[in-house]
Amino acid sequence: MESQTAVTESQSGATESRGGVAAAREGVAAVRDGAVDPRTGVAALSPRYQIGAALALAVVAVAVCVHIGLTFLHVAPSNTLTKQHGAVMDEWIYPEFEQNWKLFAPNPLQQNISVQVRAEVSTADGGIRTTGWYDLSAQDGRAIDGNPLPSHTQQNELRRAWDFFVATHDSDNRPVGLRGALSETYLRRIAVLRLDRNDAAGPRGVVERVQYRSRTVNVPPPEWSGERVSDRPVYRVLPWWTVPAGETVGGAA
Amino acid sequence: MNRFALSVSRGISRVTDSALGPYQTAVIRIGFSATWLLFLLREFPHRHELYGPDGPWSRDLAEQLITDNGAFTALMWWDGRFWFEAVYALSALACVLLLLGWRTRTMSVLFMAGVLSLQNRSIFMGDGGDNVLHLMSIYLVLTRCGQVWSLDARRAGRAREARARGERVVDRTGPALWGVLGLLLVTVTLAGRLDGDWFVPALLWAVWLGQAVWWVVGRLARSGEPRVLLDVVANIVHNGALFVIMAEACLIYATAGWYKIQGSRWQDGTAVYYPLHLDYFSPWPALADLLTASGTLVLLITYGTVAVQVAFPFTLFNRRIKNVLLAAMIIEHAVIAVVLGLPFFSLAMIAADAVFLPTTFLRRLGGWAERARDRLVPCRGGRAPVPAPRDGKDAEHARVGFSA
């Protein structure tokens, strides 16, 4: 209570004696109104309204502190507080304040992961034909080469879809939870879209099943480092997936 | 004790009497809306594949995920191609109008709705740049970002001149816009389309009701006090949001920096070499080879990046060092835009960096832009009034990152 009175009093004091606050206020009022309007700011309010202003200030101050605090804990490594209050934090952060700033950290990716796909196609004469592997990542890479404005469809679509699949499947390629199932459907639809663009089915052919594999190869270390890493590719082969009849090709086909 | 009370009171009057950083908030408004606008234009040929009902991330998949996480997206309100095209077009339109500062508060809400609608519809299409825009579009709604460099500022100036001449100024566009958007808001709320997470719907309703209160109080209140109180509340919210925007930018750099320190490649000074040799981030392989030809140069850039990112939040307390680091980071992002092929990520980051630019620099920038405009479009009638310079003392404060 004492300090509150001090605040009110010293405010007028500052306005009169120092002039700094008043000048600042005038400056901003001038920005807003083009003329000095004395009737702005808390000082122009009667005590009844000042309580309202103080309340607003308190609410905003608390909200700002809580939001920044929770955001900090969200981006911080797992720690004592996040372990104890994870549920409360997630309640506030998700879905709209989710964020991840581990940009090329702790270590940048040091492998090129090529995602490749092939298809089983039923041909017009009633036979079944298996296509060769289409290296979709290499196609993305070629689209990005020399391109000052790479599209998200080239840079993110397949790359992140694959990350999503890896994150939602165990090492035996079994899906974990709802998201695992979603990621399979997503990859399958990307495959159908990209195979169609490559005209993999040929005239009057139909893609019946698709199969993905990834080919991971280390980025060769810089010459000046003297390091050596294996240049042998590692493959991860997924099972064949049946394409449901009538699954439409992506809108941009 | 007296000095403490005095400084507290000065602090309180600083954050209540004015919406701080008018130029900083205007420049990020322009920066973020321009980034999203350019992105939408660039992706126009790919829009169906990215966000359309028949894209690989189909409507059905999106519906399952959104039912699960409750994210806001107007794209799911109605089905069909027409609605999708309308949302995409309106999102771009909102960018243009926010950039120009026309009905800034309303446009900032539509800008946010556009960004969230498209991004939340297909979350696996985005990258760090989208993430920055996502957060900043929400924060921007809470700022008074049209105080300068906006059509709103020009309109306010003209209205003031008209009132000074004794004319009556009646605004019909504002209430009409409010009515149309209110109808939409009521419709989708009653139709149960806002039943996901509560935050964004609550924000939409709060701004809509807030504008109504603002208008009513401006017209009817007999004494000036309710109007002044609303002005004070708007200032407080603005200053809070501006602080959050700055803190968010600091969190981005701090997180990026502190996690890098823990990585062996950032420690041995080779980290920068690797992204430049990933197929997805090397649009100019020859340029990447040139940049990484020298191990010493790669080491310097690697260590420099970490040092700048970790140090940045702390340098806000020293204006000069802050400005040097700011320049370094803006240059680094410009380089990343080209070398790693991440133009929109870099633009978004530069826009976020711009919130820390000094007022004097921004005013000079505004002067150049104005002269360039006058040269391109000569003999324009009714120029926007140039805001009066703030007095020296205040401008000095504004240059220090945190208090700006």
TrEMBL record, chain B:
Renumbered residue ranges of the record's region Disordered: 381-404
HTTM-like domain segment(s): 17-361
**Superkingdom of origin organism:** Bacteria
Q: Per its UniProt record, what SMART domains does this chain match?
A: HTTM
Q: Where is the composition biased (Basic and acidic residues)?
A: 390-404
Q: Which UniProt keywords apply?
A: Membrane, Transmembrane, Transmembrane helix
Single GO cellular component term: endomembrane system
Its record classes its membrane topology as:
Multi-pass membrane protein
Which locations, inside or outside the cell, does it occupy?
Endomembrane system
Residues spanning the membrane: 20-41, 82-102, 173-192, 198-217, 229-256, 290-312, 324-352
Tell me where it mainly resides.
membrane
In Swiss-Prot or TrEMBL terms, this protein is called: HTTM domain-containing protein
Q: Which organism is it from?
A: Streptomyces griseicoloratus
Q: What is the lineage of its organism?
A: Bacteria, Bacillati, Actinomycetota, Actinomycetes, Kitasatosporales
